[in-house]
Amino acid sequence: MPVPKGSTIDPERTRATILEAASAVLYERGLDGVGVAELCARVGVSKETLYRHFGTKDGLVAAMLEERSERITHWLARQVAEAGDDPRDQLTAVFGALQQWYDDPVFRGCAMLNAAAQHHVQAVRDITARHLGRYLDLLTGIAGRAGAADPRLLGRQLLMLVEGATVVAAHHEATGTGEDGRLAALTLLAAAGGPRG
Fold this sequence. Notes:
Elements: H1 11-29, H2 36-43, H3 47-54, H4 57-82, H5 87-103, H6 111-118, H7 122-145, H8 151-171, H9 177-191
C-alpha cells in the first residue's frame, strides 16, 4: 500500500485499510493459519507499518475482532429495527439476516467464537464475552417487548439458538439453518408468554 508521490499519509485511513484487508485474511485462514510475514505480504504493508498501527499481531487480532463485533451487532440491530414492532417479525429478521450470512461463500462461522477456540487468552475471551453480551442485550430486548415472563432467560435461550445455528451452519449444513432457528425461536417466544399467532 505505497503512498503515491506527493500524497499525504493519513494514519487513520492506513490503519482502517490494514484492518479491513487483514480481517478478511484472518477470518478466511484463522488466527494461527497465517504468520505475520505472510499477512503483511497479503495486506501489502511492511511489518514495521503493521506494528506501528497495532503493536503486535495480537493487537491486530483484537482490533479486528472489536471492529467485526461492532459491525455485526449494529447490522443485526438494524435488521430488528427495520422489522417493525412485532417481536415475531424481529426474530424472523434476525434469523433471516443470519441465513444470508450463512449463504455467503466466505462464511466461516462466528469470528469471535473461532478466535476464542484458537486463542485461549484473556483479551480474546473478553472480546468474545462482550460480543455475546451485545447479542444477549438485543435478544433480551426482543423478549421484553414480547412480554416474556423472564426476558433475560428467554434472551439467553435465543442467544443459544443464534450461536447454535451459526455453529451448525459453519460445520454441518448451512441450507435452511436460519429457518430452523427461526421456528425454534418462535416456539420459545410463544412458550415464554410472548404473543401468539
